[in-house]
Fold this protein.
Amino acid sequence: MPVITCIDDLKRLHKKRTPKMFYDYAESGSYTEQTFRENTSDFAQLRLRQKVAVDMSGRSTASTMIGEDVAMPVALAPVGLTGMQHADGEILAAKAAEKMGVPFTLSTMSICSIEDVAEHTTKPFWFQVYTLKDDDFMNRLFERARAAKCSAIVITVDLQIMGQRHKDLKNGLSAPPKLTPQSIANMMTKVQWGLGMLQTKRRFFGNIVGHAKGVSDPSSLSSWTAEAFDESLDWKRIAKFKEMWGGKVILKGVMDAEDARNALAVGADAIVVSNHGGRQLDGALSSIRALPSIVDAVGDKIEVHMDSGIRSGQDVLKALSLGAKGTYVGRAFVNGLGAMGEAGVTKSLEVIQKELITTMGLVGERTINDLGRHNLLIPKGFEGDWVD
């Protein structure tokens, strides 16, 4: 195994070992990619307050997310097409998360199905759903998630309309992918990746093909995805999804204090401050800049989580210090998966946990619950000084 000291080391290996089509899918945003870039760069504006001569023995990253014990408040975010970054990618990522003691969230647009992941894990995982029009499909999806003993549903609320991602269009990345001579030639250079894909039976969208009406094979998938998403979504519809599921619900994609209060009103168990990794509304605030006002609005009444831009344990600590009760990593674990499979996902989580517990000691805190804004130096106007 090469010496891995940070997520960027895994990212370089990911780029080297995975076809360009799928690497670009993970490492891109919509339109100008302003929000995609600022999701990470805005973390650097927050500085840490160093403390000395404090007893730092017995530090722990243990915490809870929606009442579940976690080794650290870091969940694996739902990422579509994970099984194209590495053969059986969702299964491998879920196994790594289970061994590390952190939540894994399976995307509806995964390559491995709910049943595949449940068969290869022993602990409940979370399942992400979109706000689709077809109630029959949604009910059957919820039934499958219940049968797999999923402990929570993560409803993505910011994907009624798809933001344009230039790299995906140029690479032919769609559902299903459109292979071109250039993409095929690139795939042929990724020998280890190719061998893995040849050896697995899981190459298509396992939760959709054979389950959604009219989608019996990958060729019929594109017409379904073009029509399935509900542009008329409102809060009543979200409340209906919660009723259909009947268990814990996390709403992902909240970037506004009013929307956070609406999530509270429909009875969500948690919200995720997220701009979809900069892949939807380009020009939106970074998630870390949006976080404080949302915590101030609802933080003591509903659990607030944060996603988009986290690449280190220090980023996790900054988000927790601003009031988040949990964080999600997407690209960070995908970098590990594309680089080295399950071992790479494990390494990405180990890197983040080590950075988190080391930084906790250097800022003078022993437990996650002790972290707060007092651990940060926050620049004036960090949230933005906007005209009403």
About this structure: The two ends are 53 Å apart (CA to CA).
